[in-house]
Amino acid sequence: MASRANRMSDERAATSFWKLQDAKARFxxxxxxxxxEGPQHVTVHGRDEVVVIAADEFRRLRGERTGAALVAALxxxxxxxxxxxxxxxxxxxxxxxxxxxxCSTRIFSPSSAARNRNRKS
Length: 121
Description:
Elements: H1 4-14, E1 17-19, H2 20-25, H3 27-37, E2 40-44, E3 47-52, H4 55-62, H5 68-76, E4 96-100, E5 103-107, H6 110-120
Parallel strand pairs: 1-2
Antiparallel strand pairs: 2-3, 4-5
């Protein structure tokens, strides 16, 4: 006849509890059972330490961040017809001189090229 401790251990195993050593040795089975039967508890020194769950269950619990809630909120807004795009302005570009030992290279922007043409005229 099995002792009470062994029966409790057997009951815990039947309800998806794994000792860490068993979980490592039979990891493929642990994953298969997590997908088929639900959460699998892994214990260390008799304490519940981690729970292995299927990826679909994890995503459901965590909540996918799809942006659907933000889109719905913006569409429901009474101000959704207001144009909130910022005005774009072209910033001036300045000449830059790059220097290397033995040579000097000057980089011209389109605005500096136009100024140089105006100077020659």
